[in-house]
TrEMBL record:
<dbReference type="GO" id="GO:0016491">
    <property type="term" value="F:oxidoreductase activity"/>
</dbReference>
<dbReference type="Pfam" id="PF01266">
    <property type="entry name" value="DAO"/>
</dbReference>
<comment type="similarity">
    <text>Belongs to the DadA oxidoreductase family.</text>
</comment>
<dbReference type="InterPro" id="IPR006076">
    <property type="entry name" value="FAD-dep_OxRdtase"/>
</dbReference>
<keyword id="KW-0560">Oxidoreductase</keyword>
<dbReference type="InterPro" id="IPR036188">
    <property type="entry name" value="FAD/NAD-bd_sf"/>
</dbReference>
<feature type="domain" description="FAD dependent oxidoreductase">
    <location>
        <begin position="6"/>
        <end position="363"/>
    </location>
</feature>
<protein>
    <recommendedName>
        <fullName>FAD dependent oxidoreductase domain-containing protein</fullName>
    </recommendedName>
</protein>
<keyword id="KW-0285">Flavoprotein</keyword>
<dbReference type="GO" id="GO:0005737">
    <property type="term" value="C:cytoplasm"/>
</dbReference>
<dbReference type="InterPro" id="IPR017741">
    <property type="entry name" value="FAD-dependent_OxRdtase_HpnW"/>
</dbReference>
Length: 372
């Protein structure tokens, strides 16, 4: 049947494409349907930072699968994927203490650095860091490149893509769209922050809302490496792996005292390098239906703090945007099977790039879902 395949994937973000990639590896016929004419969702709006090490202990199996999938996809499709790790400058003794605790907890996954070592590694030798760490397993990709390149490569391998086509209903192997009906043995729905438009009851049941994040692209000085991945103290208080360390409550109190404005906008201050510059962000605000406006005060705050760490006196801002991802206060992953042929998968936290290929394995091969 012309409109039939082994697998239909709804959504051409990284989660849909990772699922299509693995299904193609398994020899299945795959059809990807997206309402846009190219990937433009969360998957191109982010840092391109695969933060494997900072994830919770309980998801480290998914993390391992994801890292392996990223490497295979990069090799096959030819997109840039740097195994350059993450650098974390510690600006206070408490930040360093959390890194020490994490290093002991995750033996072999963390290299502790002295202040000069971490300052040199992020390209700002004058930074008065008290110490820091390198997390060598973490990876960097260019979020503006990955999804379009992977989609184009999959299309060349025979995966069918139907763009500009909104899916309006899914059930029992049938997919109703604005361009007619399609059928498949299995349907995987990865609509990102579009979940409520397709499965409103599911979104409500998991308290799914949209998180908006203030982001900027600035010029990168030569001395800052293109594959930079830099987390900061706010990241140590945020990612589940670090946040489980005993000194994190004290670090949170210190941050509230030292950086109240960053805490107020729920910042995860970080920066990554891409060929086009440095990605700098971010803040977090939550709403079922966010307004489109970007707060210039928050944008300036994030820019000021990130460029201070990197020693950039006069940042040249090339772009600003309000990124969006799907969020839930209850879970980091919505993975539901409304009927035997349908799977709905949405990462409801800012870790979907990191976990994408590992979650795609869970989607296609079943298996135990760890406590997200
Ligand atoms: C600013 C920012 C920073 C981030 N930083 C990081 C980070 O450092 N590390 C990390 O791991 N993650 C990060 N994330 C999170 C990560 O980007 C997301 O978790 C991930 O990209 C989600 O991928 P997705 O494929 O589920 O969604 P998306 O990329 O949004 O793709 C969903 C697709 O589904 C399509 N779609 C939706 N509804 C329909 C429909 N009814 N019919 C047809 N098509 C439909 C959309 O058009 C879209 O193309 C960040 C996100 C943002 C916004």
């Amino acid at each position: 049947m012309e409109n039939s395949s082994d697998l239909i994937v709804v959504g051409s973000g990284i989660l849909g494409l990772a699922t299509a990639f693995l299904a193609h590896e398994q020899g299945r016929t795959v059809h990807v349907i997206d309402s846009s004419d190219r990937p433009v969702g969360s998957s191109i709006q982010n840092f391109g930072h695969a933060c494997f090490t900072g994830q919770a202990d309980i998801v480290q199996g998914v993390v391992r699968d994801s890292r392996a999938g990223w490497l295979r996809a990069a090799q096959a499709a030819g997109f840039w994927a740097a195994e350059s790790g993450t650098h974390v400058p510690a600006m206070t003794e408490l930040e360093l203490q959390v890194l020490r605790e994490f290093s002991e907890h995750r033996e072999g996954e963390v290299t502790l650095l002295d202040g000069r070592g971490v300052a040199g590694a992020i390209g700002n030798p004058d930074l008065p860091a008290v110490g820091g760490a390198h997390l060598p397993r973490d990876m960097r990709v260019d979020p503006r490149e990955v999804a379009p390149v992977l989609a184009a490569w999959l299309a060349r391998q025979g995966v069918r893509f139907t763009w500009n086509t909104r899916v309006t209903d899914v059930g029992d192997g049938k997919v109703a769209t604005t361009r007619g009906e399609f059928a498949a043995g299995q349907v995987v729905v990865c609509p990102g922050y579009g979940l409520a438009g397709l499965f409103p009851e599911l979104a409500e049941r998991h308290g799914v809302r949209v998180c908006t994040l203030v982001m900027a692209l600035i010029d990168r000085p030569e001395r800052v490496r293109r594959d930079l991945g830099m987390l900061t103290g706010t990241s140590l208080a945020r990612y589940d792996g670090f946040a489980a360390m005993p000194s994190v409550p004290a670090l949170r109190a210190e941050l509230a005292e030292r950086e109240p404005e960053l805490v107020d906008c729920v910042a995860n201050l970080m920066a990554t390098g891409i060929p086009g510059g440095l990605l700098v962000g971010d803040s977090h605000a939550y709403s079922a239906t966010p307004e489109p406006f970007l707060d210039e005060g928050i944008a300036e705050l994030l820019l000021d703090r990130a460029t201070a760490l990197l020693g950039i006196d006069r940042p040249v801002v090339r772009q600003r945007w309000l990124g969006r991802y799907s969020d839930s206060p209850e879970t980091n992953l919505v993975l539901e099977r409304p009927d035997t042929r349908t799977t709905v998968a949405v990462v409801t936290s800012g870790i979907g790039m990191t976990l994408s290929f590992g979650i795609a394995e869970l989607i296609l091969n079943g298996g135990e879902i760890p406590g997200f």
